[in-house]
Design a protein that fits this description.
By secondary structure, the protein is an all-beta fold. The protein is built from 2 helices and 41 strands.
């Protein structure tokens, strides 16, 4: 365990914001702050073997001035970071909140692994991330590593990892804020010590009346605001015996959302627990972690008529339970001067299914569906770094994973009679996957550094992709139990310049190739029954199925520049060019040469922060993205956009601070989705928030 003095803990709903944007200004340290204890394990921070992969590290002091106050919305300041769609977690259905990096194959599950204190927080059933749940108020640091997770991370870390390390603090923190659309948030945390133990308790709440999701020209009486409520509580107990730190954590989470019409909504309930042991010594340090997660999800879907005056229920996923449990063991040591070695093993097992009412006829549902299965992954890994020459780091690593999908099933029955209408039992499937990575990082002199890396990775399709169909309006997407693991090969080369005068520049060229990339492929747009899948496509709707595209390439450039012009003025900009192409779509030949859906070629951010006096911080940010396609057919196009956001904060003293934010100040139109019938969804227009923080 490492002891550090850090600024007072920032509010859970308001802070973990802006985390990954390189070069953001840090708040000044408070000389009167209370000391904090940070429990650090091998899977946190950046060990030597990570340097070649260009990680981005943000600590707690850089998380306070984001104009966007939800974590995922703030992270969109990092070009290439995004959820499946342009919608943020304030309005998006949870199933669309999977993380994408560098535009590498956005989909609902995401291809990025997100961990909090070493525990995977991707949904056990679907792979998406509940951004309302992440512990923003207790963040000590966030580490983002792009590229394949061949080292300690494994499954789900296809495009990279986002690792959040939390902290423990003595004292009391509180935050209250309110704003447009009936938005309210509050947070409180308290911590203390007794007889060698640290105890902490924190809670957060967020609610909003929301906004309407459909473009104004197409709205009808059926369109209402998409409201949401989210509540979280965390209890932590930790101690230290000799050189071993132990931390136990128990958490609860509850969220409910409206999805823009009276009938459509979703709800989530979760309980989580973990036990973490960290040992540090002069020559060897180690970590052991065990966790358990129990999640339950429910969601309703409907079809809306052309005039948007009425809706008809189409699907009621009334119970989607999922559990996840896992364990991780990792040891680090120095076998010889200049060498650092990490070896470890991990195990994850998820079990989940969806229970649904379907086929709405004559005012009632007539069928039941029960579909799901079990998935397990066990891996061994090793990482080696050589730092024998000053300024030079050479690293290499590999891992071997064994996976198994079992108990896959899809059972459908008649509600009235109980008669079995479909009883599919899928064969157990298993396999092994080997991955590796290698890289070099060379700090040539004080002003220039070079790096290069190559890597592979894999991702198992989630239980959701394998077994759960869904419907948005009249657009239907079917599951596919035959999906194969996704594979990725990639490489990148980077340059870091620090020429002086307060200027820093980073640039990276990257090229990756995906195999078996899971995509929602549209296979029918005409009204009528699909004999292959046994699905009826309604008028104005479409039928898609999750299928693996044989080969997809993504290549591009990411760059950022920051200039500390004066002690009080900082300017920065970042840009991503990401060009995706479906090289081999398998049987769907019409997709050959197309661009991936939901992946703009161009995106960027410009940021200015000014502190004219010590107590006042002003910040302006502009985020922009080029046009993108709705899906891999490249038919529906979402227009480009640019939005401006503002932040102002006034620090009265060490204990009290006021702030205000404004998002999308010009009311720019941000198209977030386009359906088969041409209906376009849009993001929020102007949003504002004002609040205060108290630290004792």
């Amino acid at each position: 365990m490492t002891q550090r003095s850090l600024p007072a803990r920032l509010s859970r709903p308001l802070c973990a914001a802006l985390a990954l944007f390189a070069g953001l200004p840090a708040l000044a340290a408070d000389d009167n702050q209370v000391a904090e204890i940070v429990v650090t394990g091998r899977r946190d921070g950046v060990p030597a073997y990570e340097r070649a992969y260009g990680p981005t590290i943000i600590d707690a002091t850089a998380l306070a001035t984001a104009p966007q106050r939800r974590l995922d919305e703030a992270l969109r300041a990092v070009p290439g970071f995004g959820l499946f769609r342009r919608s943020g977690s304030r309005t998006a259905n949870p199933t669309a909140q999977g993380v994408s990096l560098r535009g590498i194959g956005p989909n609902g599950a995401g291809r990025t692994l997100v961990l909090v204190d070493g525990v995977p927080v991707n949904d056990p059933f679907g792979g998406w991330v509940y951004w309302s749940r992440l512990p923003t108020s207790s963040v000590d640091s966030i580490a983002l590593t792009r590229g394949g997770g061949a080292g300690p991370w494994g499954n789900s870390a296809l495009a990279g990892t986002i690792r959040i390390d939390t902290k423990q603090r003595d004292g009391l923190d509180m935050e209250l804020a309110g704003g447009s659309d009936g938005t309210l948030l509050s947070q409180a945390s308290v911590g203390g010590r007794a007889n060698g133990w640290h105890m902490g308790l924190s809670g957060s709440a967020f609610r909003t009346d929301g906004v309407k999701l459909v473009e104004p020209a197409r709205r009808g009486p059926i369109d209402i605001k998409a409201d949401s409520d989210a509540y979280a509580v965390d209890g932590v107990l930790s101690t230290r015996v000799g050189n071993i730190s132990a931390t136990a954590k128990l958490s609860g989470f509850k969220e409910s959302r409206g999805n823009g019409t009276p009938y459509t909504n979703n709800a989530t309930d979760a309980v989580e627990g973990s036990l973490r042991l960290v040992g540090d010594g002069e020559k060897v340090d180690w970590e052991a972690l065990a966790y358990w997660r129990d999640w339950s999800f429910a969601s309703t879907f409907s079809g809306v008529n052309a005039t948007r005056t009425a809706e008809t229920p189409s699907l009621d996923q009334y119970d989607v339970p999922a559990t996840a449990k896992g364990a991780i063991a990792q040891i680090g040591f120095t076998p010889a001067d200049g060498f650092e070695t990490d070896i470890g093993a991990d195990l994850r097992e998820t079990d989940g299914k969806t229970k649904e009412r379907m086929t709405y006829t004559a005012g009632r549902y007539t069928r039941l569906r029960d579909a799901g299965g079990t998935q397990s992954v066990a891996g061994l890994f090793i990482e080696q770094a050589w730092t024998g020459v000053p300024g030079l780091t050479v690293s290499a690593g590999g891992r071997l994973d064994a996976w198994k999908n079992s108990d896959g099933h899809r059972l459908e029955s008649d509600i009235a009679t109980g008669a079995i209408l479909r009883n599919d039992r899928y064969d157990t499937r298993d396999g092994t996957v080997a991955n590796g990575r290698a890289g070099i990082d060379w700090q040539a002199d004080d002003s220039i550094a070079l790096r290069a890396a190559a890597y592979t990775g894999f991702r198992l399709p989630t239980l959701n992709e394998l077994y759960r169909p869904f419907r948005v309006g009249n657009d239907i997407t079917e599951a596919n139990p035959a999906l194969a693991p996704e594979r990725m090969r990639g490489g990148e080369a980077g340059l870091r310049l620090t020429p002086g005068n307060g200027v820093t520049l980073n640039a990276t060229l990257f090229h990756v190739r995906l195999k078996n990339a899971v995509d929602n492929v549209v296979i029918q747009t005409t009204t009528g029954n699909n004999a292959e899948l046994g699905v009826f496509v309604p008028a104005g709707g479409s039928l898609a199925q999750r299928r693996g595209l044989d080969r997809v390439t993504v290549k591009g450039l990411e760059a950022d520049i920051a200039w500390q012009a004066t002690d009080s003025l900082r300017l920065s900009a970042a840009y991503l060019f990401s060009d995706s192409e479906i090289n081999d779509p398998g049987s769907m030949r019409a997709l050959k040469g197309n661009q991936l859906g939901q992946s703009p070629r161009h995106s960027g951010t410009v940021d200015v922060t000014w502190t004219p006096i010590q107590a006042l911080t002003l910040r302006a940010q502009v985020r922009a993205a080029g046009k993108q396609f709705e899906d891999s057919r490249n038919l529906g196009t979402l227009d480009s956009y640019a939005v401006g956001d503002l932040y102002a904060g006034w620090r009265v003293d060490e204990m009290l601070e006021f702030y205000a934010t404004a998002e999308n100040v010009t009311g720019a139109r941000v198209e977030t989705g386009r359906r088969s019938d041409g209906l376009t969804n849009v993001g929020p227009e102007q949003q504002w928030l004002a609040g205060l923080r108290i630290r004792l």
